[in-house]
Amino acid sequence: MDEHAAMELVERARSETAHLAAALARQRDEIVASSEFTSGDDEHDPEGATIAFEREQVQALLRQAQDDLAALGQAAERVRAGVYEICERCGGPIAEGRLTALPATRTCIACANRR
Ligand SMILES: [Zn+2]
């Protein structure tokens, strides 16, 4: 994979993840807004408990998306530094198929499995 292709791969994943994060943030805001109409008593109000659970789920997904964005930012740095396809652990090559599936990965499949 040349640097241009690698950068395109990372940038595409970055923009998809940014869209996802924005959608999740909107969803969370909607849940928060809708929960303002309930009692907020999670323990005794079944609706409140459901909303709290949904909010937690969305919040977790949002955190994951933000972590992915940070990791993709680092991946872009690695492309620029010319070390994108080099495993951080063993210094060996990272397979192109693995990078395509996981653009933010920093290790080869062997090192990932060893963890
Ligand atoms: Zn490795």
UniProtKB/TrEMBL annotation:
<dbReference type="InterPro" id="IPR020458">
    <property type="entry name" value="Znf_DskA_TraR_CS"/>
</dbReference>
<protein>
    <submittedName>
        <fullName>TraR/DksA C4-type zinc finger protein</fullName>
    </submittedName>
</protein>
<feature type="zinc finger region" description="dksA C4-type">
    <location>
        <begin position="87"/>
        <end position="111"/>
    </location>
</feature>
<keyword id="KW-0862">Zinc</keyword>
<keyword id="KW-0479">Metal-binding</keyword>
<feature type="domain" description="Zinc finger DksA/TraR C4-type">
    <location>
        <begin position="83"/>
        <end position="115"/>
    </location>
</feature>
<dbReference type="InterPro" id="IPR000962">
    <property type="entry name" value="Znf_DskA_TraR"/>
</dbReference>
<keyword id="KW-0863">Zinc-finger</keyword>
<dbReference type="Pfam" id="PF01258">
    <property type="entry name" value="zf-dskA_traR"/>
</dbReference>
